[in-house]
Amino acid sequence: MFSILIGIFLAFFDYNFVVLEQMKIEDERSQERIVLSGLELDNQTCLYNVTVKNTGTIEVRVRAIYVADGTTTAFICDPSAYMDTYIPPDRSLNISLPSGVPFKPEAKIIAATERGVKTKEYEALLVYGPPKPVWEYDPTKLYIGPLMLQFDAFWYRKTLGDGTLDPNEPWNPGWSIPKGFGYCAWNITVMNIDDRNITINRFSTFNVVPNDSPSTELPWYLEPTNQTDLTQFLPVNQTRNIIYIWADPKEASGDSRPQKMTLPECTCMVFLTFFGVFHEHDGTTTTYAQTIPFEAAITVVG
Fold it and tell me: Which member of 117, 192, 220, 291 lies 3.0 to 4.6 Å from 234 by CB, making a disulfide possible if both were Cys?
């Protein structure tokens, strides 16, 4: 009986010890976090080393590296067999890999710790980084085709009866204009983001279209910067201001009428039309014509 009791006691003690050890391992395992943060290649064809970062709160030891390709997972190595793979919290470790492991962009590389925590990532993402978005949207800018508009650089200003800018009036933010304002000019800011220079002509317009009455739209025609041929030059990668003043395309004779703001209280959309030419790299020109919605509304206030 005594021997049986001793055996039961030892078995119970061993069981408790195993349970406590398992609980300790699980507690430590819950504190482990690792991520793959880099992958270097040897001659762009084979894996050279992989960087593992410890983002948890406890020291880890990396014990295995795998590569998963489709439905197949292959063991590559236990790096702890040939180097120290302990990583303190918030530290990284470059782990050298055996030679001859081919680089496969579509495959995933996997790292595992001694306690069984794993992390994995596509090889291509580790080597080349995540793909960049085609267009990071900026609400102050819009580009359609070769011209990019800058909405935080948009104004109106009073003009005199002959179309000259009133020297006593400043440029005002263009999103709101008083009704019955009279003769006025509009000023927009653009950048030519094409690889060719552009020349626009006097038929280019700034069209204000009331939402409730599209048929009463008001056009403002270009004030050319080149008064000889009544055009404006837009060089590549240069920001330029384009001013619209006229009720009709400007005449070389100077006999032109400025446009008035005659709309009642309303909200309007704006459409820009551009006419001109591209200056090709071989010295020739090709026709350029484009309509751009201005995206936001102008409010005519009382």
Answer: 192
